[in-house]
Sequence to fold (214 residues):
Amino acid sequence: MRKRSDVDTHDKGTDGEIVGRISWMRFAALSVPAVGLTAALGIALSSGALAASFAVSGQQFKVSADGLTGEGFAQYGSIDGNARGELLPVAVTAIKQAELRNLCQSVVTTLPVIGDISLNLTAGKSSPVEASGLFVDATQLSGDAEFTNIEIGRDASTLDKGPDGAQGMQDLFGQQADTVKISELRQVAWATNAGTFKLSGLDMKVAKGKKECF
Fold:
């Protein structure tokens, strides 16, 4: 997930807020390749410091939300592993307490003979989805974001504003903030972990064809 700010426009407000559109791909361009170095991978494997706490599937999924608000934000580069032993670079976004409005999650599976099968999950239309100890291992993330008291370029091993365990490897890029707000959230991810995940108005559908959140 740049020594320079991840925010394309970075006007500071009176409360230390930074507002702008995040260039998530620029963040990933500097931090994720560092994670891919042989020495760093060796350290990660020996210490068990993989991002996800389980072997991820061979399929990524898409998540969208009209808005996300969170307290205790941290982000850093890391790696997931799958059942084949492959290592997958990710940008980990960790939030202590989060609320998401109009959440959508989708995954498309291609099966022999049948073709594409889509699984869609929606929630949080009338009242927000609530999550605590939220970790998202993403390969793509976009939206309009606002941070308060953000620290960009902090050593990933010293992050202390996110949930417990939200730290990366030493000498790697990290960033954190007291609060975060993201509107028009769009992300592609390998895994999501949460201590609690409350889905109000949950609706799950399976259908033929490719029907994704975005």
In short: The helical segments are 24-35, 38-47.
